[in-house]
Amino acid sequence: MAHTITRTILLDSSREAVVHYTFISDGTSPDLKNQVILDPMTDIITVPYTQSDQPSPMRQQPSFSVYEFWFNFQQFSGLWQFDNGVNPQTIWQLSQTSGDSHYDFSSFTGIKDRTGPMGTGRMIMTTQGFGGPTAVGDLAMFTPTGNLVVRLKKYYSPRYVTTGRLDQVQNAPYIGSPGEVGVVPIPFINP
């Protein structure tokens, strides 16, 4: 049997996402090591919508900024990071708690993924103590469990394929929301 990690997408708009995770240890498998918990290319909307609510013709990979999160980890801790394959960027050290913890970074645009061009956009988790049951004082063995709710802001970077000179390529990714008045995306032009 393997650990159970349940991901529920609570909100997935063109600019924001809210994701809920439940972690339940199977009591025998080892700790998680760089386990992907969110992949922007497969788990959420990756193409912003234009004013006509149709997907943009330009595929864009989002990067995230963690605006706020809530968590409650019982009998284990986690290192939550943005993945870049070599040297991940730490988002937060999630320690075991006796109650719910809430952190809000929206007043300064959150903790942004700054892994650079080698970044994958994925969020990964490495745990300590999640691998098996632990004794809690005089109580019987307790199976590690936890919850994490994350509110993310999405930022888009265009991905082009062009045979023209880069200084002649004009492109501006769409930044507004569906139905926003006065925001018009500039189309991709390749002379």
Question: Would you kindly provide a written description of the structure presented here, covering whatever features stand out?
Answer:
- The protein is mostly beta strands.
- The protein has a single domain (4-160), classed as Sandwich (Jelly Rolls), CATH 2.60.120.
- The chain is built from no helices and 14 strands.
- Strands 1, 2, 4, 7, 8 and 12 form a 6-stranded antiparallel beta sheet that branches.
- A hairpin with a 5-residue loop joins strand 10 and strand 11 (141-142).
- The radius of gyration is 20 Å and the shape is globular.
From the structure above, extract its key features:
Jelly Rolls, 191 residues, six-stranded antiparallel β-sheet, mainly beta, globular, four-stranded antiparallel β-sheet, 45% strand, 14 strands, single chain
Summary, kept brief:
The protein has 191 residues and is mainly β.
* Strand percentage: over 45%
Order of helices and strands: EEEEEEEEEEEEEE
CATH domain class: Mainly Beta
State the helix count: 0
The coarse silhouette is: globular
The quaternary organization reads as single chain
The CATH topology annotation reads as Jelly Rolls
Mean pLDDT: 76
Number of domains: 1
The share of residues in helices is: under 10%
- Uncertain regions spanning at least 5 consecutive residues: 172-191
Cα radius of gyration in angstroms:
20 Å
User: Could you tell me how far the N terminus lies from the C terminus, measured between alpha carbons in angstroms?
Assistant: 56 Å
Describe the sheet with the most strands.
Answer: 6 strands, antiparallel
Q: Tell me the structural class.
A: mainly beta
CATH 2nd-level architecture: Sandwich
